[in-house]
Each structure stands twice: as C-alpha cells, then as structure tokens.
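Researcher: I've been going back and forth with a colleague about how enoyl-CoA hydratase might be arranged in three dimensions. Neither of us has a model we trust, so I'd like an independent prediction. The organism is Marinomonas phaeophyticola, in case that matters for your notes. Sequence below.
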Amino acid sequence: MIFEGKAVKVSQLETGVVLVTLDLQGESVNKFNLLTLQELGEAVKAVKTLPNVAGVVFNSAKDVFVVGADITEFTTWFTLDDNELADKLREVHKTFNEIADLPYPTVAAINGIALGGGFELCLACDYRVMADSAKVGLPETQLGIYPGWGGTIRLPRLIGVDNACEWICGAGQKRSADALKDGAVDAVVAQDNVLESSLHLIQQVVDGKLKYQQRRQENNANMVFSPIEKMMIFESVRGVVGAKAGKHYPAPMVAIKTIEKVIGQTREKAIETEIAGFVKLAKGPVAKALVGLFLKDQQIKKTAGQFSKGAERVKQAAVLGAGIMGGGVAYQSSSKGTPIIMKDIRNEALELGLSEANKLLGGQVSRGRMTAEKAMKALNGITPALSYGEFDHVDLVVEAVVENVNVKKAVLAETENHISADTILTSNTSTISITELAKNLQRPENFCGMHFFNPVHRMPLVEVIRGEKTSDAAIARTVSYAQAMGKTPIVVNDCPGFLVNRVLFPYFGGFSAMMKEGADFQIIDKVMEKFGWPMGPAYLLDVVGLDTAFHADEVMAKGFPDRMQHEGINVIDKLFEVERFGQKNQKGFYRYENDRKGKPKKIFDAEIHSILAPTVVSKTELTEEDIIARMMIPLCIETVRCVEEGIVGSPAEADMGLIYGIGFPPYLGGALHYLDQMGLQAFCDLADRFSHLGKLYEPTTKMRAMAQNNDTYYGSAV
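Model: Here is an independent structure prediction for enoyl-CoA hydratase. You can compare it with whatever you and your colleague have in mind.
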C-alpha cells in the first residue's frame, strides 16, 4: 500500500496502473469532507512520486462514487470572510488541477452516484467509465450556489455550452444513457465491470490506441465563438433558464454569466472567475435559506428514523375509500413495494381508484421511470374489495373516507371489528381531532393520524398525528410505513388542523378578510405568486376544493374561536353555497377546462365578481406590501404558536412541514427562518400596524419577549 488514510488509499497493480480508492471509514457513502479532501491531496502527491506509472484510476470501495461535499462541514466555510472562503476553494482547485495535470492518463471509475464535487473530480480526469445504474450531476444550484471546484469550467468544454448550462442550471441527476449521449462519460458498462473497463481503457492508451494528451489539449483550450454565435447561445439559455428559475433564485443566472466568461479564459483566470461568483452566491440570503433547508431535511429524516426505530415492517396495508385520494395512497404504497387492499362500498368508486392508480403508473412508464413489467406488478399489488374479507392479515389501515367526523367515527369503529388486535388504524383526516375520532374505538392506543397531501404521488409530506392515547408503537409503525412509501413523515401532536392546516387557515383568513374589503382575488394571486408561492390563495383554494375548505374552516373556527371565527358570510362560504367547488367540478374562483394533456387549465370567469359581491362590506386600497403582510403575518404567528404549544417538535420540523405541505417559498427558508431573517422586532412592529384586524395579527407574548432580547428560532446556525 503506497498511501493509506481514513478516506483514501493508493495502491499500484503489476501493470503499473495506480488505484486511488475512495473509502471513507465509518460512513456508508463517500463524501468530500475536510478529511477526504486533505487525504486526496496527499494521495495525489504520493502518486506523483511513483516510478513507472501506466495510468491512474480513481475508484470507490463503496456502492457510490462520491455523493458530493459534506454540507454539514462546508456550511462553516460560508461564514468565513470573502478572502478566506476564496482561499478554501483555491486549495481544492489545486488538488483537482494536480489530478488533471498528472503526466499519465487518468480515469474515473464511476460505479455509483457521483454528484457535485464528486462529479467535479470525475471531470478533472481524462476519461470517465460509468455504471449503467449510476447517476452523475452538478446539483449545487438547488442550494443557491453553483459548482465551485471547476464544474463551470470543465463541463462546458466537455459537453458544450448548451448542455452544460442545462446540467448546471437544472441541477438534475443524469442517468448513464443521458450522460453518454451528451458526452459527459466515455463508456457505460455493468456496475460489476466498471473497474475492469477502466483498466482496459488505460491499456488502450498504453497501446497507443487513445491519445489522452490530445484530449487534454482540447478540454483545456478556450472555446471560440463569433460574437453573434455567443450572443445567440447565451440569450437563448438565459431566456429558458430565467423563466424557470425566477427572480428569487439567482444561482442559475449567475452560473450562466460565469460560464459565459470562463469559456474564453485560461484555466487560472477561469478559476478566479468561478470563485468570485461562488463567493457572492454563498454569502447571500438565498443560499443561506436553501442550505438551511437541506440541513433541516436531514434533521427531520433523522428524527423520523428515531421514531420508526424498531418498528415492525408493514407487509400488507389497506385503504378505506377508493376515490382520488384512496387511489393515490394505493398507487404510492404498491409502487413502492407494499401491497394494499383498497376497500369501498361502491364498485364505481373502486373502478375510479384503480383508474387513478393505473393512470399514474402509465405516466411513470411513458416517462421511462418504470418498466411496464414493474407497473403491472404494482397494479396487481392493489386488491379492490367491497368487504373486509381479507383484513384479518393487514398490518396497517389508512381511513380515507369523507371529511366528516360522524362518518369517520362509524367507519373506524366498524373497521376495528375486522382487524387483528395489533393492526394499526390510521385516519387521513386533514383537520379533525385524532383524540375525538378515537372516542368510539376499543383500542385507541393503536390509532393515530396519517395525513397525506393531495396529489399523494407528488406531495412529499405525511403528517403523523399522535392522539391522547396513541402508543409509541403505533407512531413507529406509521412512520415506518410512510418512509417505505417514499414520503417524509413529521410527527405532530393533536389539535384541530394539526400543523399544516392549522397554519394554512389563518393564511386563508387573511385572504378572506381582504376580499371582504373589496380586493380582487386575481391581484392577490399575482402578488403572492410573484412573492414566491407556487399558486395564489384563490387558486390554491380551487385546488384544495371549496367544499373541503368550507368544512375545514368550520372545524378550525370551532377549535380556535378567538381568531379563526368570522362574522357574516365570507368568500369560502359563498362559493360553497353556490356549489363552486373548484377544480373538482371545474368552477370555483376560476373556471377550468382540460388541456390537451387532460390537466385542468385555469380561465377567468366573468360571473365571479357578481357572485362574490354580497360578501364585500367595504372598500380598501391595498398595496402589494399590504397584501403580502396581511397574508404572511397570520401564517407566521400561527406557526410560532404550533412550536410554542408543542404541536410540532422543532422549528426545523415546522418549516419543512410548510415547505413540503403547502409550498411555502423555499428561498425564504420556512416561516421561522423568514422571521429570523426579518428580525422578530421588525416583524412585531409590522404586525402591530395591522392590529385592528384582530387576534390573527397579534404576536404571542413569547415572540415579543424574544424580540426584546434579539433572540432567534435558529440561534446562530446557518
């Protein structure tokens, strides 16, 4: 062994080929932490001293190559001053440049995932051999930064400007076929053959069949375009990327600007250009928010793992109710490997549920994400049923019937008589108290909430709700099942609306109050979408369903009468009264028609203003700032209440619940991060401007105390 560290080893074969093997001890994956980078630099220095080297293969002893930088360590870099951060980046560039300049051919043997800095290491090599099951990519723009170890410099020279911009700005993980097609890798082989093929490639160079030095010259040369060519390429790229990224996410557009500069620069100059852009982004508020979300996501997954530790695996599930929601749950369960019984009292409902699952599976097949064989297996894993005949061997039941407390109580009590004593019973209620629903149950300790969000296949969050008598075992199995379904579960305590809907309805309350004052819902939608929400409140209500919102609003008003009750009829009441339920019956605030793909297309309906006219009691002029404040203040205060009352376990879980559950703008980092960035004193001052609107706009006593002490919800953490 030539070099042996705790993350990197160097050995030499009899053929003269040197193996630089990445194997971070104590970890299931390789990642670039400070130790690995240091040892990589030492390993390269050791390689440079060796005689009779035929070539170097960078490979991994794990199932992945390198998953990227260890963000938990590198966030400390972002707190350094600009010059210190730039120096840190230069150190890594020095190592990667030494790899690129080794006086013999180099190959990256990509046996598994190679992302971020891991893929930038691959780009520093002359050749890349990739496993057919592997994925590569530069996902840094998802964190509000861009590749900082040569990715913006080397990738355009390798695959062209257009492709490089798409790879970097899209932040996607590329499958082997796409990577080969774009020219990012030189060969795709079976995973077991990656190292053997890499050694064979080195031998081809030794035999004179491949000219690695010529390749280096091409990849290091400036890219030459005429002024018109360059303008057309980058204006086109800016148009496409700018439309997707939006103004709140600067990293993709800064990446394009950097690529435009570095393609015509020497390597040394290009490195300084890349570093300057990286430092600017890393020190900005969006990177702080998005990196924070990444860390919070890791935290809530770790918390979920603690909840599910020791849980019995759900081998057979069941869902009660076979509508769109039931069909979505059935699809998600079966497609992820857990067979499920889908029960309803009506055959046509079962057909609808199966149709929904079949449609989703067909979409996966058509997009190449699932084979037809796997889709058929998933569909066969859904057993439609009109009775409880096979429920005696079910491990967990999801009740997904109509959102009515009496109906749910009756269905749950009936179901309990047909399941074993240790089967976990859950309710997919969105607002109704789990403790209340458990009152008629014989085994309330085996009952909890399992709240999915619609559409089930797209929304990552599942709220697992603990009632007064819910056991730890029930929570553990439910969390475990949610994880098996590919979802992110957050455990919350019981109250009307739990976390997400309890926070969402004050947001809707702010909207309804403005509508009473004569506001135009289209303007409110545009302002909030411009602010960063995926859809404005009126559009969101149409998607949720005005009938669902009406019933949930009643539950919330009863649960929190001091701030969620309202006088007179509001817009939700009115649209429910005239049966404008939103997308589900193609008319709500907007009218809907299906486009060519069968998706509902939003259209303005001229009748709506006359329909809503009886709900208007005054006329107030509202600025954009007023609209944002009146929407955001109630949401933020209610989120704080949920944390203060212990409904949710931590600020991180609260923020991620809003990000994953209702599309809170990610660039703001979540409601509590948003408060930290604004400053609690500034927020309380803003809320006091609207105190005449009632208790929804009244900060808690603890918030005011924290404001006085300049306290934050996340302390000094990034």
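Researcher: What would you highlight for our discussion?
Model: I'd start with this: The mean pLDDT is 95. After that, consider the following. Residues 285-308 form the longest helix (24 residues).
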